[in-house]
Amino acid sequence: MIVITEIKAEDTYPIRKAILREGMTLSHEMIGDHEAETLHLGLFESDELVCIGSFMKASKEIFKGSQFQLRGMASAKTSQGKGYGKLLLQEAELRLEQRGIDVVWCNARIVALDFYKKMGYQLTGNVFDVDQVGPHYMMFKELN
Ligand SMILES: CC(C)(COP(=O)(O)OP(=O)(O)OC[C@H]1O[C@@H](n2cnc3c(N)ncnc32)[C@H](O)[C@@H]1OP(=O)(O)O)[C@@H](O)C(=O)NCCC(=O)NCCS
Question: 15: burial class by Cβ within 10 Å (0-12, 13-18, 19+)?
Answer without folding.
Answer: buried
